[in-house]
What we know:
The chain is mainly alpha-helical. It has helices at 8-16, 20-33, 40-52, 56-59, 62-68, 90-97, 117-129, 133-146, 152-164, 168-174, 180-193, 200-213, 223-240, 244-252, 255-263, 271-285, 291-295. InterPro entries: ARM-like (IPR011989), ARM-type_fold (IPR016024), Armadillo (IPR000225), Plakophilin/d_Catenin (IPR028435).
Amino acid sequence: RNMSSAGPEGRKKMRECDGLIDSLVYYIQGAIADHEPNDKATENCVCILHNLSYQLELELPESYAQSIYMQRRNLSSNDKTPGCFGTRSRKVKEKQQDTPLPEEKSNPRGVESLWHSTLIRIYLSLIAKSTRNYTQEASLGALQNLTAGTGPMPFAVARTVVQKANGLPSIRTMLHVSHPTVKKTAVSLLRNLSRNTSLQSDIAREVLPDLVSILPESVPGSDIVCETTASICYTLYNLTQSNSHNARLLLSADGLPKIITISMNDCNMFSKASRAASVLLYSLWSHTDLHSAYKK
Length: 296
């Protein structure tokens, strides 16, 4: 577990170690099957997999990168592909979002397991069944890592979490735990998921009222709460930016007074949350059909 946080070279060596990832997955599957999701060894295994999934899209071996991103060849030559992963182009992002992963292998081995739906379902199962904060946080964090990029892999993982594995109810529960880091990681995961336009309706229906409910009534009182608040605002921004129905849902959940209060604080310590709330307010105002409702 300590070695897995040793940086890019350490992660590379561990991903390449024959049988290591497979053994970790095998152990966790056994713990879940035996109804023992709270033992320390399971926590260690999940934390290792969490670390090995960090920056996975950037650090994949070339052979996997070419296989996964093969369909990028259909992008027009005008888009000048900047390597496999480093694009900031909106056109390329949109194209990637619509590009599915190649068909999953039924028996993944080694590094292939890290983004496979089997492991995604294991993380969601641990989120639902474990009461150990570090295990919950590591499971949420691994999913956050896997959905953090802009290529086909993160969007495919996001679709698996939301639509194929029905993971939103388990993630929603984590929004209401008392442990601040678990809550923060759950919100960060939802922020990643909410970037996928095809999933926004599902996410808004399932968790938008919960996101509003955990917004603080006044200015956040600590760094971690401030970061969580900013992340909630950006998630709500993603969900409402192009969707008037979701903006109305936010309004009916009494989110507007909270967002206004957070946006009006200019104390340096809380500027991140204040700025995020202001960006959200600006976006909400773009729904002109809701102006009269806002004023009321």
